[in-house]
């Protein structure tokens, strides 16, 4: 398991979230200045220096539920509110989109280009805010510093870690189904045509070498695909043509985003362990999460600016219906910790859980876990 | 070219890794090994694809690693026995061919790895009575396997690669089982070839 995977996971999922929110804000005809404020607030929170510092520390990936908590908080960093059903749908879309991008990356290293595509688009959202722009550029530099010199083998490890996070998730997304990049069983389609990864040859040739390493024979074979050489390598610079389209914005106002809950998976045994067994590392995960979110500065809704509710569905009725019919195994309860034995520990965990509520609560300092609580922001 | 035969369902999904399937033909049974993620799945099937036994193997949790990912599962056919080898993030495990008993376990040496480098192994091949495993450090671990029993020894660790080894293949030389060539694949496309010193 690579300990450098979290920044890539977080930034790309965050990028997808912004694409979807931008599309919904326009589809719901939210006034331009309000929409811009929402995106600015979220982006500014995402790229906060302290938050980024925590994010880039070498650490293992969080569980899906723990990460969902972070995005829940991020989505509410501004005057916008989302109901549970809309937040669920948002997270489904985000995860399936990034899963698709990682799976389809020609080389493991190309996940960095996907990340840069997201950041390029984010720059577009905040063109009028030089301070936030600077934060994004700083993150670019941090990405280059952290990942620029990694070998292909290390990127392969990162890729495997990312894909294990998404394993067995087969939610069908209407945009993917329409574009035929996803089958009706929720699996993605691997292309058998198009450019080969940069640095590799078009298949079709077998070369045979003797013991001295000299080429002695060639043979050709038919592979049934239709591949061409890669035209050029994507740029890893601060600005440049990334070449790769994965990670660019595929949503527009005219392409509504729908998900279809795929039928309950036939094999409950194949579910990741976290959903069934109590997680013995729950407390450790909460500590990590607290440090991460402690770095998040959430602005309180200030002044006369009224909040508004964003709906990821076309109507309110649809949203209600989705909440009622969501399959059990796909429910994202905000950190469902099953504390096992200790009564004292149960109380402590319950208290920490309480701190995650998005409400105005006075900060409680207790003797146990002072530093943990101290790290959390007032909401 | 090929026609699909009968499908055999596995208990869990296969991880999206390259070449994630190892097959062993033993007498009239076919054994399949697939990496799921945190576990490796073994399935034995009778002729006509009738599934018989399924088993799951897990990587051990090393110090500081809570969820070790398995990188490869592969059967090694040696002159006197068959061993099942599992490589994962912190270690190499070897089992009897049916996966029932672990006969050997080797923790990968973090050595010069900085805290953030993923210490892992990938690339498994049998060569005579040796099993070769590629490591993150670019080294190849060569294990000397006795005809039976758990007395397996790490006999050498030839270096020479600067980047992680991702795959290994071996070729038996005609009539000279001890003079084997080993081919290692590295992620940058290089294919160095090494010869056994014996």
TrEMBL record, chain A:
Listed GO CC annotations? cytoplasm; plasma membrane
Q: What Pfam families would the database entry show?
A: Oscp1
What is this protein's name?
Answer: Protein OSCP1 isoform X2
Species of the source: Vicugna pacos
UniProtKB/TrEMBL annotation, chain B:
Q: Where is the WD repeat-containing protein 54 beta-propeller domain?
A: 1-177
The superkingdom of the source organism is Eukaryota
Quote the InterPro entries the UniProt record gives.
WDR54_beta_prop (IPR049546)
The name this protein goes by in its record: WD repeat-containing protein 54-like isoform X1
